[in-house]
């Protein structure tokens, strides 16, 4: 049995999320169908994390086991030939059987995009949360309350199945890039809707509706009802998954083949800033 890891990118606009669902179009469902054709046998994927309906990815990592011996280019180019342009395999690597896309991961990184006015943006950046101009420095200062290990019940969706609301946020930055405000956050893992709810909270600070210290008080109160509506999914992208093991880190150096969709290319560019 050969274990293979893949780097995946997808525009989630027309998808019902990552996870396979009956009668619904999902990233996992599309990829498994395409990979199964290349392997000439059923393929089941394990992902570093699930994304909600409408959420995008430039750095999703998955793995699968198969008896099929194929050159790595077949898992990339062959699979892409059977996928819509909105879903791309960016790279493939053989990995050790102890590697696990989800459980070996030590960090996930997301970005959330806000825009001052979507009417003035290029088409590739239409998928943001648009509205009045935001105070990015105030949002950044408020966001530092998220750092470290703590209880994230206040930004956890009611349907979350995780056994604990405790998560460790390693880094969070909010900065303005022209008409965009970018929330960049990394953590060991995230509870359900955590980033979107954080985006909602920070937007309230950016609009001057809440003081900068409010986010700290919100987290301390552990009451999701205080926050208000969850931010829409279209501004959110999973951009990176990190692994601690030296062999996994070497194996998972991205070697993109072909370009991901236009939106994802733009998000990847923002990710490098």
Question: What can you tell me about this protein's structure?
Answer:
This protein has 273 residues and is of the alpha+beta class. The chain has seven helices and ten strands. It has helices spanning 27-39, 72-80, 136-143, 194-206, 214-221, 246-251, 262-271, and strands spanning 2-10, 46-47, 56-66, 87-95, 105-115, 129-130, 148-151, 166-177, 180-187, 236-243. A hairpin with a 2-residue loop joins strand 8 and strand 9. Helix 1 packs across helix 2 and helix 3 (136-143) crosses helix 4 (194-206). It starts with a strand and ends with a helix. Residues 246-251 and 253-260 have low confidence and may be disordered.
Measured on Cα atoms, how large is the radius of gyration?
19 Å
Q: Which stretches are poorly predicted, pLDDT < 50 over at least 5 residues?
A: 246-251, 253-260
What sort of overall outline do the alpha carbons produce when their principal axes are compared? globular
Mean pLDDT, as a whole number?
Answer: 89
Helices, by number, come to 7
Sketch the major β-sheet: 10 strands, mixed
Distance between the termini: 40 Å
Structural class: alpha+beta
Task: Tell me the helix content.
Answer: 10-25%
What series of H and E elements makes up the topology?
EHEEHEEEHEEEHHEHH
SS elements, strand count:
10
Strand content: 25-35%
Oligomer class = single chain
